[in-house]
């Protein structure tokens, strides 16, 4: 849906993306066409989707309010990510609370396993909005004898009526609790620690009396001490192997090759 006035337009990204998916590529072979009803070419629709944002009024003050809908699952086509790179917002326009939320999102989001840019995932899942506009500007020339080129300069800014608390860090944490499959993989050592911690807590919680609790605590301490000793022994073995490598190196074998230099003046 596009709502328009002379000075601004409002566009719902979900409906427009769905329309692009529903269009079909025109079959240019007239023999294979079974109907005289013209079909909309998907490429033409994608081109129109880009070109429409270059619409301008006679005052050159037209702007677009672009927004994502709440509680909507987006399946972005590849062409949309290219559109996003040019017409989408930039982190520099985010208010402080949204900046913090975006940093939190970047910290948790597994971007390596996603073809969707991190900022697009953040904006679409928290239904954020921004304003796009453009103006003609004269470009620079290499010398004064050339006429300066007339160029389009695009601008984006934050829509101030948006409730930034909806994209705050605490909301980001809540969102990832509902979407754990999008989390970055945890550090192996950290995962092992928390796994052992939960197992030990469950083991101690199974104690039914003070005596059994004391016994279980003693076993836990012995187990932790044994793990620490094993880890220490492992490091000693690795260190010993390093020294063995030096002993086998011919560089360290011939003492006649050693020499010294005196830095004292005669």
In short:
By secondary structure, the protein is an alpha+beta fold. It has helices spanning 13-22, 42-51, 78-87, 96-108, 118-125, 169-178, 188-205, 210-248; strands spanning 2-4, 8-12, 63-67, 129-138, 150-158. A hairpin with a 3-residue loop joins strand 1 (2-4) and strand 2 (8-12).
Estimate the helix proportion, in percent: 40-55%
Domain count: 2
What fraction of residues sit in β-strands? 5-15%
Helix-strand pattern, N to C? Answer: EEHHEHHHEEHHH
Salient structural properties:
266 residues; disordered N terminus; 5-stranded mixed beta sheet; alpha+beta; single chain; 2 domains; disordered C terminus; 12% strand
Task: Give an account of the 3D structure.
With 266 residues, the protein is an alpha+beta fold. It folds into two domains: 172 residues, no CATH class; 62 residues, no CATH class. It contains eight helices and five strands. A five-stranded mixed sheet has the order 1-2-3-4-5. The radius of gyration is 32 Å and the shape is elongated. The chain starts with a strand and ends in an 18-residue tail after the last helix. The N terminus and C terminus are likely disordered.
Structural topology:
Layout: E1 2-4, E2 8-12, H1 13-22, H2 42-51, E3 63-67, H3 78-87, H4 96-108, H5 118-125, E4 129-138, E5 150-158, H6 169-178, H7 188-205, H8 210-248
Parallel strand pairs: 2-3
Antiparallel strand pairs: 1-2, 3-4, 4-5
Region (Disordered): 225-266
Biased composition (Acidic residues): 239-266
């Amino acid at each position: 849906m596009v709502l328009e006035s002379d000075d601004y337009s409002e566009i719902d990204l979900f409906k427009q993306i769905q329309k692009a998916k529903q269009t079909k590529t025109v079959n240019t072979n007239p023999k294979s066409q079974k109907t005289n009803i013209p079909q909309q070419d998907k490429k033409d629709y994608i081109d129109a989707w880009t070109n429409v944002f270059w619409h301008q009024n006679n005052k050159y003050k037209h702007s677009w309010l672009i927004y994502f809908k709440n509680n909507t699952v987006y399946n972005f086509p590849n062409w949309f990510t290219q559109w996003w790179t040019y017409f989408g917002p930039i982190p520099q326009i985010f208010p402080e609370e949204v900046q913090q939320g975006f940093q939190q999102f970047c910290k948790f989001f597994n971007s390596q396993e996603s073809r969707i840019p991190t900022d697009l995932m953040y904006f679409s899942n928290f239904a954020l909005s921004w304003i796009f506009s453009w103006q003609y500007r004269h470009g620079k020339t290499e010398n004064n004898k050339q006429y300066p080129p007339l160029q389009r300069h695009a601008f984006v800014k934050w829509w101030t009526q948006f409730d930034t608390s909806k994209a705050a860090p605490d909301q980001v944490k809540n969102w990832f609790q509902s979407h754990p499959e999008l989390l970055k993989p945890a550090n192996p050592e950290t995962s092992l620690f928390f796994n052992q911690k939960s197992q030990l807590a469950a083991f101690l919680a199974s104690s039914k009396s003070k005596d059994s609790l004391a016994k279980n605590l003693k076993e836990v301490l012995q187990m932790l001490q044994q793990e620490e000793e094993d880890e220490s022994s492992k490091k000693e073995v690795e260190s010993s192997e390093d020294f063995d490598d030096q002993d086998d190196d011919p560089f360290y074998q011939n003492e006649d090759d050693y020499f010294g230099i005196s830095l004292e003046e005669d």
